[in-house]
Amino acid sequence: MDIEGALVAHLLADDELTALVGNNLFPLAIPEGEQAPAVVWQRVSSPRTLSLRGNSADSPRFQFSAYADDLVLARRIAQALNHALDFFVGVLGDKTKAQVIRADYRDSYEHETGLYRSDVDFFIYYTNKKE
Prior knowledge:
The protein contains three helices and eight strands. It is α+β, with helices and mostly antiparallel strands. A six-stranded mixed beta sheet has the order 1-2-5-8-7-6. A two-stranded antiparallel ribbon has the order 3-4. Strand 6 and strand 7 (96-110) form a beta hairpin. It starts with a helix and ends with a strand.
């Protein structure tokens, strides 16, 4: 399982988050016909820590955008994302050893959609476990 799939599976298993958005976690945008509240995620950057010893660690930055009809709910969703991911240490998916640290947080309003948005960015440090 890739890191994106592992992150989504981890979030869909989180009761606090799913109580707020159900299964509404989408890559890049809320699909046409779907409604807020929802979480949209995207990879923002993909730096790697390189080693001459052959091992390396990836540390991509992911942005999770919580969309809702009001700012209070958008912030509650962002808080649930923070509870699920910030300072997580463990295995994501079946073979990915990971550590997660929040990088940034911000609120905004989208006039085009009429939705409030709370963005939470995380650095995901990970290596795939050897069999």
